[in-house]
């Protein structure tokens, strides 16, 4: 049988283009890989190379909706479930939930699939505080990001901390994505706020560049995720995943089960469980017992590679082993790598003493402060001793709210009740004959040698004042933004606190920006409260340091039966010394109980008594009302009295001084009023 050539040619299998075949297989493989990454990103965590990573933060003024927006982003990416009963997921501290503010920057990793490219990205979000006292947290968080969302309340507009946080991000060279929040509120005015953004920050406010969202309802929030991927650049200047391991330690906290938990940003190399790494700061080598990402809780991953951010368990048992800004590297590296520059130490502006309620609790308090400063590196700690209160600490803070939050965290998280002394700032003193003074340091006012006074106990005694050339106090430039109708009240407030007006700018038809030069000591206690009360809460305030200036300062001492109580002393300007001395004597009388001896309360200024109050003696017998019966009744009353005395501190002349005495002087007498009402 013959078969024609034509028939054979028809039966041939047609030849396929090998390039087209390879392209189809590659596309199919790529699609399968992408689907696998999307389905289980943790198992394919090594696939998230730097081009798939976006590190960003949210900055805004306090109460503009940062934490609420973070919740919506976590819900949209499936990181958390939608639970209306558990708002503000990233506000993990008890003090944050009670006060409704963010005081600690929190990190959360999300996996997001872009709707147009179907490519899955790893988004590392840092939720930052909005209050000026926690600006150190903001600056440290921004150093780990490549971009930031500038969140502005569409009903409130630009406020003081909005301006401060923007310029922090601008100085870091970050990509800024403006977002208007709360656009669903009846009082919102997006067009007006856009004009403010354009005029103040010179940002592009075109409709495609500024997003309009409502974090509470979720309106417009999905567009934020797409904008983050498209506008914020991926991490750059990194090493390869195959090179030696190197990472920056940018946050730590203490866990009672695993010890110190470290949060790191990997610069180069790959880290897996069981590997060993070395600290550049301590030269100690640790084994990695666990690693992973904050999702938003600790979620283990197979590894961490260049460009990724995650946590480590290294078995650190002492808080002194962890140094914020430290560099971790591989001990098998050919040479020790150049360390990261680290973070600029926070400069404390407010100082206060902290003492345990009972001298036997000092070791417990020391351990609590060590663990808490591990999580809050901006607190400066040094030991000091008071004649009235015994051993304690001199703590440096970034503001009075920072101080109050730290005290509350000590009590709630570590069950350590403390006595705080009145806050003060750091003063400078120059002398005529420097040879008679020990401890002078260069670099003071106008380059002079000065003695730093961070504690009233360090203030020159009356006999030494003849050798004093001058006192110098720290100044700040305060930025106030308020509606036009409250300008008069603000000017009066700043004037009464020795403020000097520097700038007056009309932002728009309803709001004004004021700049005042103020003594830092004047804004420590009730300035912020008066600011809010005089403007019905509409004014905002931010400040920055601007050096020192000469001042006429004096020391106000409180005396009980002629003996000074060093823990109640303070440094004030001479013009306000007499009114403050008289007021403090009255407050102290209100909070002190009558005791078995007469108590004479006096206030002296540079050794001269200017005010006096007297508390008459009282004989108190807790068993006087008993007329017989079981001995246990008497013992019960004596034990109750003993427990009450434990809360008191024995000071000069055996006089019992309650904790409320210190709180009264700090909080403006509120505690005193409460105590007096209880009697």
Automatic annotation (TrEMBL):
<dbReference type="InterPro" id="IPR013842">
    <property type="entry name" value="LepA_CTD"/>
</dbReference>
<keyword id="KW-0999">Mitochondrion inner membrane</keyword>
<feature type="binding site">
    <location>
        <begin position="60"/>
        <end position="67"/>
    </location>
    <ligand>
        <name>GTP</name>
    </ligand>
</feature>
<feature type="binding site">
    <location>
        <begin position="127"/>
        <end position="131"/>
    </location>
    <ligand>
        <name>GTP</name>
    </ligand>
</feature>
<dbReference type="InterPro" id="IPR035647">
    <property type="entry name" value="EFG_III/V"/>
</dbReference>
<dbReference type="InterPro" id="IPR000795">
    <property type="entry name" value="T_Tr_GTP-bd_dom"/>
</dbReference>
<dbReference type="GO" id="GO:0006412">
    <property type="term" value="P:translation"/>
</dbReference>
<feature type="domain" description="Tr-type G">
    <location>
        <begin position="51"/>
        <end position="236"/>
    </location>
</feature>
<feature type="binding site">
    <location>
        <begin position="181"/>
        <end position="184"/>
    </location>
    <ligand>
        <name>GTP</name>
    </ligand>
</feature>
<dbReference type="InterPro" id="IPR000640">
    <property type="entry name" value="EFG_V-like"/>
</dbReference>
<dbReference type="GO" id="GO:0045727">
    <property type="term" value="P:positive regulation of translation"/>
</dbReference>
<keyword id="KW-0547">Nucleotide-binding</keyword>
<dbReference type="InterPro" id="IPR006297">
    <property type="entry name" value="EF-4"/>
</dbReference>
<keyword id="KW-0648">Protein biosynthesis</keyword>
<dbReference type="InterPro" id="IPR005225">
    <property type="entry name" value="Small_GTP-bd"/>
</dbReference>
<comment type="similarity">
    <text>Belongs to the TRAFAC class translation factor GTPase superfamily. Classic translation factor GTPase family. LepA subfamily.</text>
</comment>
<dbReference type="GO" id="GO:0005759">
    <property type="term" value="C:mitochondrial matrix"/>
</dbReference>
<dbReference type="GO" id="GO:0003924">
    <property type="term" value="F:GTPase activity"/>
</dbReference>
<dbReference type="InterPro" id="IPR027417">
    <property type="entry name" value="P-loop_NTPase"/>
</dbReference>
<dbReference type="Pfam" id="PF00679">
    <property type="entry name" value="EFG_C"/>
</dbReference>
<dbReference type="Pfam" id="PF00009">
    <property type="entry name" value="GTP_EFTU"/>
</dbReference>
<dbReference type="InterPro" id="IPR031157">
    <property type="entry name" value="G_TR_CS"/>
</dbReference>
<dbReference type="GO" id="GO:0005525">
    <property type="term" value="F:GTP binding"/>
</dbReference>
<dbReference type="InterPro" id="IPR035654">
    <property type="entry name" value="LepA_IV"/>
</dbReference>
<keyword id="KW-0378">Hydrolase</keyword>
<protein>
    <recommendedName>
        <fullName>Tr-type G domain-containing protein</fullName>
    </recommendedName>
</protein>
<dbReference type="Pfam" id="PF06421">
    <property type="entry name" value="LepA_C"/>
</dbReference>
<dbReference type="InterPro" id="IPR009000">
    <property type="entry name" value="Transl_B-barrel_sf"/>
</dbReference>
<keyword id="KW-0496">Mitochondrion</keyword>
<dbReference type="Pfam" id="PF03144">
    <property type="entry name" value="GTP_EFTU_D2"/>
</dbReference>
<keyword id="KW-0472">Membrane</keyword>
<dbReference type="GO" id="GO:0005743">
    <property type="term" value="C:mitochondrial inner membrane"/>
</dbReference>
<comment type="similarity">
    <text>Belongs to the GTP-binding elongation factor family. LepA subfamily.</text>
</comment>
<dbReference type="InterPro" id="IPR038363">
    <property type="entry name" value="LepA_C_sf"/>
</dbReference>
<keyword id="KW-0342">GTP-binding</keyword>
<comment type="function">
    <text>Promotes mitochondrial protein synthesis. May act as a fidelity factor of the translation reaction, by catalyzing a one-codon backward translocation of tRNAs on improperly translocated ribosomes. Binds to mitochondrial ribosomes in a GTP-dependent manner.</text>
</comment>
<dbReference type="InterPro" id="IPR004161">
    <property type="entry name" value="EFTu-like_2"/>
</dbReference>
<dbReference type="GO" id="GO:0097177">
    <property type="term" value="F:mitochondrial ribosome binding"/>
</dbReference>
